[in-house]
């Protein structure tokens, strides 16, 4: 089971026989829900207080990190980070942290912009510092990013092929190293 207040790739699930993608908790948890208290104020109206600094820093929106009020546009920021991770390969955790930190200042890897220009453009939109400049979920679904699902599928298929080539190359290197040390060959 995943942490209920953290947004990380482990909060992305494949569900059902068709392996439909489901995204778990984005971290917009409310203190009232966490504390299991009454949501109504004296007027009988629902109130809730967002928790501050909830979630994983690399995925949290600027307004969350600042302790300011936030809304669904904060989720859009987190989605932008996830999209970057889907389309940008990382060699190390340090590289991943560096790229995701750079995203806060609008830096998108040049290799991503060249390989996936539409996705890079929307990652840039989704991770804007000012939440009012980020697209809503409806706007995103109506955008070219989702209107041409063939592009998304093709890009993901290309990424899989690149990763398979990299795995094969690593297996070859491992085999060469193991032959030199008398270790059984990995297939």
Automatic annotation (TrEMBL):
Residue span(s) of domain Protein kinase: 1-146
UniProt keyword list: ATP-binding, Coiled coil, Kinase, Nucleotide-binding, Serine/threonine-protein kinase, Transferase
Pfam families in the cross-refs: Pkinase
The name this protein goes by in its record: non-specific serine/threonine protein kinase
GO molecular function, one term: eukaryotic translation initiation factor 2alpha kinase activity
Coiled coil: 151-180
One cellular component term from this protein's GO annotations in UniProt: nucleus
Catalytic activity, EC: 2.7.11.1
PANTHER family: EUKARYOTIC TRANSLATION INITIATION FACTOR 2-ALPHA KINASE 1, EUKARYOTIC TRANSLATION INITIATION FACTOR 2-ALPHA KINASE EIF2-ALPHA KINASE -RELATED
Record bears the keyword Coiled coil: yes
